Structure formats: structure tokens, C-alpha cells
Amino acid sequence: GLLLDTFHMELTESSFGNAMKEAEGKLEFVHLSDIRRLVPGAGTISFKEVLALLEMTGYRGWLSVEVKQSPDSRTVADLTARYLKYLEAAEV
User: Fold this and answer.
1) How far is CA 34 from CA 6, 43, 85, 92, in A?
2) I want to staple 59 with a disulfide (CB 3.0 to 4.6 A). Which of 8, 54, 75, 77 is the partner?
3) Long-range contacts of 3-6 (CB under 8 A, 24+ apart)
4) Going along 1-92, which residue ranges are E strands?
5) Sign of the C-alpha dihedral, residues 69, 74, 79, 84?
6) C-alpha dihedral (54, 59, 60, 66), degrees to nearest 10
7) Which of 78, 82, 47, 79 is nearest to 63 (CA)?
């Protein structure tokens, strides 16, 4: 299977949608990371779009966050959780 990493996709893919369509049915794990390995929402990647595309492909697996631990792990975890909860609430 494939591991999708939004940080690398931003660097190498012309379209998140096309890349995810190619990976459809083969995805086993997803790393969420904004540009420069920042927490989701701190850069330019549209995670609302990324999550919608994953939903459209039928992906139901795990999402992990692979980011720089700066200024510290607790702050990074809090910022990430708040942003993902915000996205989830925006969908309601």
C-alpha cells in the first residue's frame, strides 16, 4: 500500500486531487503536515480540500501529524487538535 504525505505532495505533485485519485484503493496511511513541516493550518496547504479528497476516495484509515515540535510538543499537539476540530466543526 501507499503512504500519502501532504508535505511531500506539496513539493512534488501538481494536483492533490490527481495524486489521490491515482492512489485510490491503495492508501494505507496518511501523514498531515503543512509546508516546512508546520502544523496543519500554519502554512498554505488547504487541509479542508485534502480531507474532502480523502473522503471522496473512500479512505477510512488513520491520519497522523508529522510536524516540527516547535516550540514544544504540547503546544504543537494543542494547535493541531484545535485546527482539526475547527475543520470538523466547519463541516457541520
Assistant:
1) 7, 5, 16, 24
2) 54
3) 3/27, 3/28, 3/29, 3/30, 3/31, 4/29, 4/30, 4/31, 5/30, 5/31, 5/33, 5/66, 6/30, 6/31, 6/32, 6/33, 6/34, 6/40, 6/45, 6/47, 6/50
4) 2-5, 27-32, 63-65
5) positive
6) -60
7) 47
What are the grid coordinates assigned to 33, written together? 503536515
DSSP-derived pairing of the beta strands 2-5 and 63-65: unpaired
21-52 burial, b if ≥16 CB within 10 A, otherwise e? Answer: eebeeebeebbbbbeebbbbbbbebebeebbe
> What pLDDT digit, counting tens, does each position of 31-72 carry?
999 999 999 999 999 999 999 999 999 999 999 999 999 999
Global pTM reads 0.89
Cis-peptide, bond into residue 40, ω within 30° of zero? no
